[in-house]
Design brief:
Keywords: Membrane, Transmembrane, Transmembrane helix. It is found in: Membrane. This protein has 515 residues and is an all-alpha fold. It folds into 2 domains: 187 residues, MFS general substrate transporter like domains (Growth Hormone, Chain: A), CATH 1.20.1250; 189 residues, MFS general substrate transporter like domains (Growth Hormone, Chain: A, Up-down Bundle). Helix content is 79%, strand content 1%. Strands 1-2 form a two-stranded antiparallel sheet. A hairpin with a 2-residue loop joins strand 1 and strand 2. It starts with a helix and ends with a helix.
């Protein structure tokens, strides 16, 4: 439509060759263990995102237990959902230093601890700390690795893989709502949270399944993508080429860092060899010193990668399309959440209780949302289709539905618009794919951490803003219109930047040709 795959670094052609040298495809890329990664990510979405979408059950229990205002009590679930996404950039640092598997396992323990401690809450403010903060950070430490690992293991079927894994959110919303409702009825909300904490320990199992690819396997994937992009994406501007180097961000500083690290480990090995004739106690000390040195090198290398991604001379923020993507993310998520807030008011205003009780409008959004993720993923993986264009079309459809929904006054009209909202919002599964195409696989964790952080800010402040607009105007219509217009601003940023970048690359090519 507006941007071709060349404009944002999409892959073309046969990925099984680099120049004239054939590369044997890795059985774990797009197959084999990759599908276990999809299963792991699917379960993570059920346990984390599904649980968060079912917090309305616990919110009612907290209102009755603590007798606080609805606004104050609602901040518990808002904090949990918001912090899960907002901590994304900091989780990227953990992934750079420890890897996805270790980060996810620690996050699973932290999430389970948050649920368990919340069972002993004496007031709402206690829940802010245990559930909002502790469980929220734990959720973020599992959610980001689950998305990143799917991106690492898939090349040709990335959109489908992300679509299948993220459908866990929709399934989780149904399963966890029914489970929490049953547990609260049978055992009370405190025991329900304790049991949910035990269930959340399965996140550690999901983290254990996130087997990292070997450096050789990663290099093969980078080489394949790099060769493909050199042949097909030479029109990229200088800023994008700096970022989209398939994991080579700040290459010279990294080489210097690696040289320093090798020097440190070399000196440790020299000391160890020289001390082999020493006592057993000194050998134990040398092994301990070697372990600490290796850990220090790993931490230094991970921190260097994280720092260069955000603050280095070739940081992610020098990519203008990626910056436009961040601006879009600040407005996008709240536009999806607002219909869930105001649909009950619309049903009440037009006296549609009978039809809505048979088939709730929010359920229509949730069910179609599952199919939307999978279908959009399949379409985006077709060789003749640009994922970027599918992403933009889905966004246009969603913003149009947000702006037209207040105009619907019948159940049939509302059901059709809600179905379109559910289907078009399936673009959420394409966000990691678009992010990876912009910055490369190596920087996916840091880049996607920024994107979900922007989504978290939108999720945290969007619903209160919509409620504030309703309190002032006493009409839900303005919430949809304002959210839709802000969303449109974000989409315009996505449209303008690739066009400007394409124009600049053409001008640069013309100047080089003249020289």
């Amino acid at each position: 439509m507006y941007a071709s795959r060349e404009d944002i670094g999409y892959d073309f052609g046969d990925d099984s060759k680099v120049g004239s040298k054939p590369i044997k495809p890795n059985p774990n890329i797009d197959g084999g263990w990759a599908w276990m990664i999809v299963l792991s990510s699917f379960l993570v979405h059920i346990l984390i995102m599904g649980s968060q979408m079912a917090l309305g059950i616990l919110n009612m229990e907290w209102l009755e237990e603590f007798n606080q205002s609805r606004g104050l009590t609602a901040w518990v679930s808002s904090l949990s959902m918001g912090i899960t996404l907002i901590v994304g950039p900091f989780i990227g640092l953990f992934i750079s230093m420890c890897g996805c598997r270790t980060t996810a396992i620690i996050g699973g323990i932290l999430n389970a601890l948050g649920w368990t401690l919340s069972a002993y809450a004496s007031n709402v403010h206690y829940l802010f700390l245990t559930f909002g903060l502790t469980a929220g950070i734990g959720s973020g430490m599992v959610y980001l690795p689950a998305v990143v690992m799917v991106g690492q293991y898939f090349q040709k079927r990335r959109a489908l893989a992300q679509g299948l894994s993220t459908t866990g959110t929709g399934f989780g919303a149904f399963l966890m709502t029914a489970l929490l409702k049953y547990l609260c009825t049978e055992f009370g909300w405190r025991n329900a949270m304790f049991i949910q904490g035990a269930i959340s320990l399965n996140l550690c199992v999901c983290g254990a399944l996130m087997r990292p690819l070997s450096p050789k396997e990663l290099r093969e994937k980078y080489v394949v993508r790099h060769a493909s992009e050199e042949n097909q994406a030479k029109a990229l501007s200088h800023s994008t080429e700096t970022i989209k180097s398939n994991g080579v961000l700040g290459e010279e500083p990294e080489k210097k860092e690696e040289a320093a690290n090798e020097e440190v480990l070399g000196s440790v090995q020299h000391i160890e060899i020289g001390g082999k004739s020493g006592s057993g106690r000194s050998m134990y000390g040398l092994r301990l010193f070697k372990t600490v040195s290796q850990l220090t090198v790993t931490v230094r290398k991970g921190f260097a990668l994280w720092y260069s991604s955000y603050f280095g001379a070739a940081s992610l923020f020098t990519n203008r399309v990626f910056v436009a993507f961040i601006i879009w993310a600040l407005f996008a998520y709240s536009s999806f959440v607002i219909p869930f807030i105001h649909l009950p008011e619309i049903v009440k205003q037009y006296n549609l209780f009978r039809q809505d009780n048979v088939f709730p409008l929010t359920s229509i959004i949730a069910i179609v949302h599952i199919f939307g993720k999978v279908i959009l993923g399949i379409i985006s993986d077709l060789p003749c289709i640009s994922t970027w264009n599918v992403f933009l079309m889905a966004n246009f459809t969603l913003v149009t539905c947000i702006l037209t929904l207040p105009l619907m006054q019948t159940y049939i009209g509302l059901a059709v618009v809600c179905a379109l909202i559910g289907f078009s919002s399936g673009y959420f599964s394409l966000m990691p794919v678009v992010t990876e195409d912009l910055v490369g696989t190596k920087h996916l964790a840091n880049a996607y951490g920024i994107i979900i952080c922007a989504n978290g800010i939108s999720a945290l402040f969007g619903p209160p803003f919509a409620g504030w607009i309703y309190d002032i105007t006493q009409k839900y219509d303005f919430s949809f219109y304002i959210a839709g217009l802000l969303y449109m601003v974000g989409i315009i940023f996505l449209l303008i930047q690739p066009c400007i970048q394409k124009k600049q690359s053409r001008e640069k090519s013309t100047e080089e040709a003249q020289v």
